[in-house]
Amino acid sequence: MALIQGKPAARTLSALCVSLALLAAPAAQAAGDESYWQTVQKNGVLRCGAAVAPPYVMRDPASGEYAGFFADLCREFADALKVKPQFVNTNWDNIVAGLQAGKWDLALALNRTPVRAMAVQFSIPAMEYQVSLVYNQNNRKIGGRMKSVADLDRPDITFAVMSGTVGDKLISAAVQRASIMRLPGSDEARLAVASKRADVLVDASDSNLLFSQAHPDWAVTLNPEPALAKQGVGFGLSRNMPAADVAVVDIFLEEKIATGHVDQLIHKSVDQVLGGMQ
After folding, report:
1. Dihedral angle, C-alpha 194, 195, 201, 204, nearest 10 °
2. What is the per-residue pLDDT for 59?
């Protein structure tokens, strides 16, 4: 009888132990799980997908060495993780697909667009990309400090822009009275302003920054308000990356931006590009 009574008691004790084990399992599993960046630390390498776009990402064709401020940020994030950076050469057609396929941990210098956001995640922007304007500060037609496209939308003003580009579409929609000189390439558009055949150059802000710094004696860059177009440029991250791991990258960038370090890296990269032009 004691044996018969003991069997239910044994079964109850056994079931209780199983229940306690099941309750403890998630906590044990969570404690054993590695974050994405802990896995990177374990592997010892941070893989950065890099498509060339000066001054964001540059590559020496002879040595294969990478430069540019996003390449510098890759190295600094690797240093924060205490791992080695590894640049994986790619192009703009494949940089998102490679990130989706897990070929690299970060995609460098991705414009944050709705289409891309359906495929990958983004860090906070390291910088803002926009369509900007460059004009000659000695141009008497322009005179005082300009703030908006409307300030330049006059019959005596001519905008120079590369035909068919985003800048062409945007400036065409923004001006009513000024003339637009559409040219086959960006070099021709720059030359039109440098030779004073046109008054204002319309191009991407990074290209205009390089152009204006190459001609500091006369070129003035204007980021119009309201903006013609503006997009953040940041790191591309896997769509499956947990929010806590995305936050690690964001916190890293927040500090670099707040201290002015990103601006320093940008200016260094621009100087490198301009040095190569001389």
Report:
1. -50
2. 92
Q: Are 56 and 210 spatial neighbours (Cβ–Cβ below 8 Å)?
A: no
Can you list the positions of beta strands (E) in the chain?
Answer: 45-50, 58-59, 66-67, 84-89, 106-111, 121-122, 127-136, 158-162, 179-183, 200-204, 219-222, 230-237
Question: Which pLDDT value is given to residue 32?
Answer: 52
Cα within 13 Å of Cα(271), Cβ side: 6
pLDDT in tens, 162-189: 898 878 989 999 999 999 999 998 889 9
d(CA 49, CA 238): 12
C-alpha pair distances (Å), 278 with each of 10, 186, 255, 271: 87, 19, 34, 11
Distance of CA 260 to the CA centre of its chain: 17
Q: How far apart, in whole angstroms, are the C-alpha atoms of residue 244 and residue 174?
A: 41
| Residues 110 and 234 sit within 8 Å (Cβ to Cβ) | yes
Q: What are phi and psi of 80, to 5 degrees?
A: -65, -35
CB 136 within 8 Å of CB 217: no
According to the model, what pLDDT value does residue 276 have?
67
CA separation, residue 165 to residues 51, 148, 153, 187 (Å): 21, 20, 20, 14
Reported as type and span, the H/E element at residue 249 is helix 243-258
The model's pLDDT over 186-245, given as tens digits with 9 standing for 90+, comes to 889 999 999 999 999 999 888 898 889 889 999 999 999 999 988 899 999 999 999 999
Enumerate domains of the chain plus CATH numbers. 36-120+238-277 (3.40.190.10), 130-229 (3.40.190.10)
- Over 50: is that where the pLDDT of 24 sits? no
